[in-house]
Design goal:
It holds the Pfam family CysA_C_terminal. One of its GO terms (molecular function) is ATP binding. It comes from Halomonas dongshanensis. It is a single chain. The chain has 359 residues and is α+β, with helices and mostly antiparallel strands. It folds into two domains: 234 residues, P-loop containing nucleotide triphosphate hydrolases (Rossmann fold); 110 residues, OB fold (Dihydrolipoamide Acetyltransferase, E2P) (Beta Barrel). It is built from nine helices and 20 strands. The strands form four sheets. It has a six-stranded mixed sheet, sandwiched between helices. It has a five-stranded antiparallel sheet with strand order 13-12-11-14-20, with no helix packed on it. Strands 15-19-16-17-18 form a five-stranded antiparallel sheet. β9 and β10 form a beta hairpin. The longest helix is centred in the middle third of the chain and has 18 residues. The chain is elongated, with a radius of gyration of 25 Å. The structure holds adenosine-5'-triphosphate. The site of adenosine-5'-triphosphate has 13 residues, from β2 and α1.
Length: 359
């Protein structure tokens, strides 16, 4: 079931929560709505669900206009951050609930319900908890049961609002891999809200980056990470270094070096910024390349197999962050206070008014 959002707007009094958003979620895809707090992700999800009415614009499920259709008629399943399971019901009863409350004509038999619930519990790998009560489960297990419960009624669309938000980092990481595998098995069109960029990049087929009620970029995880459409997306998707640049005839000059910026072939002496990710900064102990900048190592932190360096260079107002494998760092023989050389391997240049000439 594809979902089409067509020029949707939503205000809460003076506040514009969703600002002229048009998007298509393709059938069977898992899409992350990613953005900072207050960017309108949840409001958009609630509009898709039918829990909120848009002021203007239409929602279509598989081409059919559902904008005025009641939430109960849309065939959506939900999982929220604090999706309270019914405390007085066992896991089995919780998952069976949506089926048992159906009108008699469409209600499956007891045996059918039993089979289905047990199949779902196996799918979320918690069949052994069927007779337990929610308080006898961990937070991560409860969210998996909430997902089984949402799937029991065979939703056409699955909507998840920060489903792992309340869990600790390790459980979150496990559950997101688990959700990915589950989605590969069941292929229900799913939209999932998160403000965690790593979660969005790891789990989803597609990422929609939102900011102030608008869509900043919509693409595959690789596209949004490797080719951010604008400085907002660049900053939001991970660490980035900013260098003041003079943009002139297809080059961005920072310090004494020139970086290629072919998209600005016609610009002359314009002021801009070159964005470079920490792992795209090459570090040397000596001046091995003519196009490297002199720097000084200010801080070294070892994070598992990687080493993060913070370096001072005259070409940047802030310390430059570089990240390299530990073996490479060791081979360089650098330490805090050492003189070093840095070279941006890949950069993306933006002019201050965020004009993007190469999309
Ligand atoms: N019912 C409401 N009444 C008034 N304002 C609301 C209502 N619902 C949401 N808002 C406002 O709309 C804005 C967008 O909220 P929304 O929950 O969609 O953002 P979000 O991106 O999901 O943020 P978060 O990650 O913090 O949940 C927020 O500033 C919020 O205060």
């Amino acid at each position: 079931m594809s979902i089409e959002i067509d020029r949707v707007n939503k205000r809460f009094r003076d506040f514009v929560a969703v600002d002229d958003v048009s998007l298509t979620f393709r059938e069977g895809e898992l899409t992350a709505l990613l953005g900072p707090s207050g960017s309108g992700k949840t409001t958009l999800l609630r509009i898709i669900a039918g829990l909120e009415q848009p002021d203007t614009g239409r929602i279509r499920f598989h081409g059919e206009d559902t904008t005025d259709l009641h939430v109960s008629k849309r065939g959506v399943g939900f999982v929220f951050q604090h999706y309270a399971l019914f405390k007085h019901m066992t896991v089995f009863q919780n998952v069976a609930y949506g089926l048992t409350v159906r009108p008699r004509a469409t209600r499956p038999t007891k045996d059918e319900i039993k089979q289905k619930v047990m199949r779902l519990l196996e799918l979320v790998q918690l069949d052994w908890t069927a007779h337990r009560y929610p308080h006898q489960l961990s937070g991560g297990q409860r969210q998996r049961i909430a997902l089984a419960r949402a799937l029991a009624v065979e939703p056409k669309v699955l909507l998840l609002d920060e489903p792992f938000g309340a869990l600790d980092a390790k459980v979150r990481a496990e559950l997101r891999r688990w959700l990915r595998r589950l989605h590969d098995d069941i292929h229900v069109t799913s939209v999932f809200v998160t403000h965690d960029q790593e979660e969005a990049l790891e789990v989803s087929d597609r990422v929609v980056v939102m900011n102030k009620g608008r869509v900043e970029q919509d693409g595959s995880p690789e596209e949004v990470y490797d080719h951010p459409a604008n400085p907002f997306v660049y900053r939001f998707l991970g660490n980035v270094n900013l260098f003041e640049a003079r943009v002139h005839q297809g080059s961005a000059h920072i310090g004494g070096i020139a970086l290629p910026a072919p998209e600005y072939a016609d610009q002359r002496n314009e002021h801009g910024h070159a964005y470079v990710r920490p792992h795209e900064i090459e570090v040397f102990a000596r001046q091995e390349h003519a196009d490297a900048l002199p720097a000084k190592v200010e801080l070294v932190s070892v994070v598992g197999p990687a080493v993060r360096l913070e370096l001072h260079t005259d070409a940047s107002d802030a310390l430059v962050h570089a990240e390299l494998p530990k073996h490479r760092y060791r081979a360089l023989g650098l330490s805090q206070g050492s003189d070093a050389w840095i070279r941006p391997l890949h950069s993306r240049v933006f002019l201050p008014d965020e004009r993007v000439l190469n999309g």
